[in-house]
Amino acid sequence: MAENETLECITEHERILQEIESTDTACVGPTLRSIYDDQPNAHKRFMEKLDARIRNHDREIEKMCNFHHQGFVDAITELLKVRADAEKLMGQVTDTNRRLQEAGREVTAQTEEVIRCRIQQRNMATTVEKLQLCIPVLEMYSKLKEQLESKRYYAALKTMEQLEKVYIPRVSHYRFCQIMAENLPRLREEIKEISMSDLKDFLESIRKHSDKVGETAMRQAQQHRTFNSAVAKQASTGHYTKPMYSLNGRTHTHNGLMIEEDSGEEEEADEEVLTAQDLVDFSPVYRCLHIYTVLGDRETFENYYRKQRKKQARLVLQPQANMHETVEGYRRYFNQIVGFFVVEDHILHATQGLVTRAFTDELWNMALSKIIAVLRTHSSYCEDPDLVLELKNLIVIFADTLQGYGFPVNRLFDLLFEVRDQYNETLLKKWALVFREIFELDNYSPIPVETEEEYKHVVSRFPFHDTEIEKQDFPKKLPMSQSVPQIYTQVKEFIYASLKFSESLHRSSTEIDDMLRKSTNLLLTRTLSSCLQNLIKKPHIGLTELVQIIINTTHLEQACRYLEEFITNITNVSPETVHTTRLYGLSTFKDARHAAEGEIYTKLNQKIDEFIQLADYEWGMAESDGRASGYLMDLINFLRSTFQVFTHLPNNNNDHASMSGKVAQTACMSACKHLSTSLMQMLLDTELKQISMGAIQQFNLDVIQCELFASSEPVPGFQGDTLQLAFIDLRQLLDLFMVWDWSTYLADYGQPTSKYLRVNPATALALLEKVYRGMKDTSKKNNIFSQFRKNDRDKQKLIETVVKQLRSLVNGMSS
């Protein structure tokens, strides 16, 4: 067992030694550690083994050294011999080198000179080569500076582009080129700023020139209209030669300022047509557009330009506060707007994409809405029809001008219908003043005609035809007053004034005819009717004037058909056309005539009231005076003279004029009824407490005079005693008291055949009570004779009985 362990240990030690010999000394540590980790005291045996191995190697080294020692000695001996020869050779080499250096010193100097010259020559060639590369760069940069100084910015940008892409890359490693390259972006920004500044100056300039551009465009549009009208006339006569004209250098209407033609003024026939380019320098816009396009920032420029033009559009569309006061204010406003859109139209066609049709349409729609709102507002302030008419002409020229540039203007022509209404309103106000002045200056008496010339003059102004009057000798009188031909003439003048607005509206004859008739209807039914109504209501217009007004309205009514013929002749539209509007003058004059008739009745009644107020009855008189009261006789005389005036009313076979006879009859009947009512109210006045029979008798005399007046037929045409029936209530009431026929009244009350059918119990009771109180007062004074007192007492008892019966009748009626 021990032997086996010893053999294993020896074998292990042998392996370890071999590993140490074959392994790097840095890795010996783990191997040696394994010796100490095996068995106790193993390292001692290993050390012994190691010592034996070292001794073995020492013996081998010694053997090898002994074997090579003689050869080493021989080599050393030979080396010592060679050293002497080497020293000798060194001396020879040194001497040869010295002599060679001395001999080649001059050659070396010349060689260095040649080398230096060759280097210089090479440097010069390189310099020339590099300069040839740099000179074009410098020349281009110099050219760039010159272009910037001469403000040729577009060319400068092109030069910069060449520098960057072609020249500078060739010599980019030079510092000056780097400086140039660094300056180019700054120069571009400067060019952008300068071009933008030029654009701003252009925008400011175009604001100032828009007025002139618009004025030129509108003037040429107006000349174009005049030219077209002349061409139409020439074509209608068969003498027409096609003109040669220029339109902004193009043959269509989208980029010019209208054609030029000979307007008959002192201008030369071949005068050059002014265009937007003639009045405005557009080069800043083109230049700036090209610059921004080259710089790749076109979108920024387009957005800026459009934004600024929108702002300018809003400024242009702002009117002056007093624009409505003069036509020049409107003209300046329109000129600026036209100038603005003429410039935009030119930019639209001269540049590609700077502004688009959609952008200009958007601007125009915005402007159109603002223009319409402004014109609506300011035209409403205009009170002068001439100013409104000039405004209409300006709107038409304005619309035609912009229509020539392709802008839709239908809404402007629609606006003209509103302006037409405003124009008609101003005309109506103006003619209202004219009518009032005519009515104020009229003497309301028939027109005296002394000679044939005067008659023809009147007839030429007013369509008057009367065979009977024409047969009369001069001097003679025409039934109407001076205001009638004046009113008729002014209505025709109004039609002419209204027609002026319809010109150039591109409307058919039928539409113009309809406009004229409607405006004339407004004049007749509103303005003239109002003036007539106000005239009739004026305090100073008396019965005579009212009668003359009725005569005048009758003749004006008859003249309405001539006004219709007048309008037909102007418009050449047959009155039989389906939709032709009729004149409403007939109703106007009928209404005025009815108002005059009503005013006659009113004034007549007022005059009767004035006479009634003069009545001074002595209600306690014992006996009547035996004659009618003075105030009543004066009133009857007034009525007689008044009704004679009605004989002047026209009473011919005309359907309208034949109504005048009824006016006189109605006035007479109204006067009689009002007189009867006033007398009845006088008897029944609550402030009148007692009435004597003598006063009743006096009142009866007055009523008799009224009945005599009624029976005398103050106005012809009444049948039988129709007029006397106005006093029937008074007559029956007075007869009842005069006859004292109470038994009959009470017995026949309610019967259709009653003698006192028109006597109301309440009226009889009120008057009877007043008479009863009067009799009481009289009996107190007249108590001298007893038989009188007895009669009075009997009468009083009768009255008391009648009063009771009347009260029962009144109570029965009320229940």
UniProtKB/TrEMBL annotation:
Q: Which controlled-vocabulary keywords does the entry list? A: Exocytosis, Transport
Keyword check for Ribonucleoprotein, yes or no: no
Q: Name one GO biological process term.
A: Golgi to plasma membrane transport
Query: Does the keyword Heme belong to this entry?
Result: no
Would you say which domain of life the source belongs to? Answer: Eukaryota
Exocyst complex component EXOC6/Sec15 N-terminal domain sequence ranges: 49-218
Name of a matching Pfam family: Sec15_C
* Exocyst complex subunit EXOC6/Sec15 C-terminal domain: residues covered: 412-770
Q: Which InterPro entries match?
A: EXOC6/Sec15, EXOC6/Sec15_C, EXOC6/Sec15_C_dom1, EXOC6_Sec15_N, EXOC6PINT-1/Sec15/Tip20_C_dom2
Q: Cellular component GO terms, alphabetically?
A: exocyst; plasma membrane
Q: Which PANTHER family does the record match to this protein?
A: EXOCYST COMPLEX COMPONENT 6, SEC15
Known role: Component of the exocyst complex involved in the docking of exocytic vesicles with fusion sites on the plasma membrane.
Family per UniProt?
Belongs to the SEC15 family.
- Descriptive protein name: Exocyst complex component
Q: Which organism is it from?
A: Labrus bergylta (ballan wrasse)
